[in-house]
Design brief:
peptidase activity, globular, Leishmanolysin, domain 2, three-stranded mixed sheet, single chain, alpha+beta, metal-binding, hydrolase
């Protein structure tokens, strides 16, 4: 983490942060994986000591004996530890945010803002970097509520138990962020990613500076993942059933089915409940039913921490260079269903899955472009007993998504930040149709050469013209002198000739 977080040093101590780590048994049937917090502050109001307690069953089953690294299939442990480290570094539930080189905290009104909309309660962190994040992701200065307006910022989780509510960012707008209140990631997959959400919060404490090149963009809800790079209207505060793009929720009216929103994973939904059962009007769900279930769907998500939405939790994640197309309907999920892709700008992309049969017993190898969006491809996967546990073939269906949507999304997913995400004018994705610096330099060089050659040629031509004009002028002067001599003698001849002619007559 040293390459990611720079801590303002503590002059009175030999260490920046001391964390006591314990592995212990939590209460029976506890679903808590770990807990962490701070235990001491320095003179700059920065935590300089803390604790981390790991629930032993989770350590034994998911963490023990496995080397874990960010960005790999075994990233589960380090992502979990980062989540807990954030609880030690930052007290999201308190107003302890301040500018750099200052111990004067922002006021409560400068730190948090609450409002109600569609019957749902919202709470936002509205500190400077949190606001910049919102501007870049949502494109609005202010969130408008039914009872209050708030400076746009990062939504704080209000659901979950006492150890979750108020101390995490909200699950719904920040799916895939490691500091949400419940972890969708499991061992053997690479799903969570440290993003500009975590960085904004760390910056706003006034105690840390982050190396943005180590982090990754939050693809979920990112305008750069959309066609034309346009903002998703009302993504931050609108009812998900109405504002989320296709593929974000399971059961929405599209052909994604179990395919993940970013084409990088396959997954099923969480537990459900009946969505039209509101006999008790005082429940959180029924108070906010216009937000949680405006379409009056028969079944919705069961968990309040997911805002009762039918999210697709990951079961299989595709490695770099591979993806999965919309249309995955099989109830079991395997990495062998991920295919290789290659984008040609935003015009089209090729997609190939080995060990499949499509046409003429050849593997699925298709090209998706602007003219065949939504086209259906039926193929079979040849069973791998090590993966599927049985011989045979399985039928599959794939649909071509818009190539710009696909290529923007997978590119954004597989990259680290290449520019400062808190620069309001920066973009992470380059325009594939824009001329490169090399092209521009070459064109400028060629145009310079052409201009120079043209100038030289023009100078030569002008020189020749001047030369001939001068020469011609000199010739003209010589000719004029002889003509004047002849004119002097002509009158005598003329004078004589008429006399002769006259006399002859």
């Amino acid at each position: 983490m040293e390459s990611f977080i720079q801590i303002i040093p503590d002059k009175d101590r030999d260490s920046d942060l001391e964390i006591s780590v314990m592995i212990s048994y939590f209460s029976l049937f506890s679903n808590i994986m770990a807990q962490a917090g701070f235990s001491g502050l320095n003179s700059l109001k920065r935590p300089n000591s803390g604790f981390l307690i790991i629930n032993y069953p989770y350590y034994r089953n998911s963490m023990g004996g496995i080397e874990s690294q960010f960005g790999t299939k075994e990233a589960f442990t380090v992502n979990l530890l980062f989540h807990e480290l954030m609880h030690t570094l930052v007290q999201v539930y308190t107003s302890t945010f301040h500018p750099y080189n200052s111990t004067e905290y922002y006021s409560e009104n400068q730190t948090f803002c609450s409002m109600t909309k569609y019957g749902k309660k919202f709470k936002f962190l509205i500190t400077p970097y949190a606001h910049i994040f919102a501007l870049k992701h949502y494109g609005v200065e202010v969130f408008e509520g039914d009872d209050n307006n708030c400076t746009s910022g990062i939504e704080i989780e209000l659901s979950g138990g006492s150890g979750t509510s108020g101390s995490h960012v909200d699950f719904r707008p920040f799916f895939t962020e490691p500091i949400i209140g419940t972890d969708p990631e499991r061992r053997g997959m690479d799903f969570n990613r440290i993003t500009d959400v975590s960085m904004a919060i760390l910056h706003d404490t006034g105690n840390y500076k982050c190396n943005w090149s180590v982090a990754k963009p939050l693809v979920w809800g990112n305008p750069e993942s959309q066609i034309g790079g346009k903002f998703i209207k009302d993504f931050a505060t609108g009812p998900p059933q109405l504002v989320f793009p296709k593929g974000y929720l399971l059961g929405s009216d599209d052909n994604y089915f179990y395919t993940g929103f970013d084409f990088k994973y396959i997954g099923s939904g969480y537990q459900t409940m009946k969505g039209n059962d509101c006999q008790n009007k005082d429940t959180e769900f029924c108070k906010g039913v216009k937000f949680f279930n405006p379409l009056n769907m028969t079944y919705v998500g069961l968990l309040s921490i997911l805002d009762y939405q039918h999210f697709k939790g990951p079961d299989v994640t595709c490695p770099k260079g591979k993806a999965v197309l919309p249309g995955y309907t099989f109830y079991r999920f395997y990495e062998t269903d991920c295919g290789y892709f290659k984008c040609n700008k935003y015009d089209n992309f090729t997609f190939y899955i080995e060990n499949t049969t499509y046409i003429d017993d050849m593997p699925l190898n298709i090209t998706c472009n602007k003219t065949n969006v939504g086209q259906q491809f039926n193929y079979t996967v040849n069973s791998d007993p090590q993966k599927y546990g049985a011989w045979g073939t399985f039928k599959r269906t794939a649909y071509c998504p818009d190539p710009e949507l696909f290529c923007r999304t997978v590119t954004l997913h597989e990259m680290n930040f290449v520019r400062d995400p808190f620069d309001l004018d920066s973009k992470q994705l380059d325009d594939p149709y824009a001329k490169s610096r090399e092209q521009i330099t070459l064109e400028l060089t060629l145009s310079g050469i052409v201009a120079s050659v043209t100038f030289i040629v023009n100078c030569v031509i002008i020189g020749f013209i001047i030369f001939y004009k001068v020469r011609e002028r000199k010739g003209s002067k010589g000719k004029s002198s002889s003509e004047s001599i002849e004119e002097d003698s002509v009158p005598a001849q003329d004078h004589e000739q008429p006399d002769q002619n006259y006399l002859s007559d």
